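User: Predict the complex.
Assistant: Input components as received:
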Amino acid sequence: EPEVTQTPSHQVTQMGQEVILRCVPISNHLYFYWYRQILGQKVEFLVSFYNNEISEKSEIFDDQFSVERPDGSNFTLKIRSTKLEDSAMYFCASSARGNEQFFGPGTRLTVL
Amino acid sequence: QKEVEQNSGPLSVPEGAIASLNCTYSDRGSQSFFWYRQYSGKSPELIMFIYSNGDKEDGRFTAQLNKASQYVSLLIRDSQPSDSATYLCAVFGAKTSYDKVIFGPGTSLSVIP
């Protein structure tokens, strides 16, 4: 069964460094999303992406964040200058029609 | 007012019983409703979705939607210890945006053997 994959599974970085989290959505899906979940808290929407552009973003997704689909398969989330409070689990999700979303296993980001 | 609310639990039920999980949402414009299951340290796994008022059954799971009351629920029949997880209610189309899913805080379910 096709699934969303994410790399790396765990990323440790120093505060102020840039990180890129990578996702490979399900191959025939057209809608892509990033969420984050701080330990013990709820899943929070960051951004949705369709037709090579951002379609919606939350207030969390500020100028430090960007997304890109550099080729036909990868979908990336970049955090330009990480802060301690960026430490969280980051989930990528994809959807065929913009409704049911399927999540990847997540990348645990630890900012020291 | 919080957009999607759920009882945090934990909800404990004996094996074989029916577990009932509830969710309310604040935006009447919401269009689609999802239930995800999340095991500790894992990603959310889609188990049910419902778009129309009424009941929708899939195996041991039944989702119920009442848009007038802004209420959605999930029933798990014949609960198994493997159902022990956090159940996340997610609402799509909140705040008139059709690209943003809002998750509730989740209800922790424990099925006691």
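Residues 32 and 68 of chain A are 10 Å apart (CA to CA).
Let me know if you want any component modeled separately.
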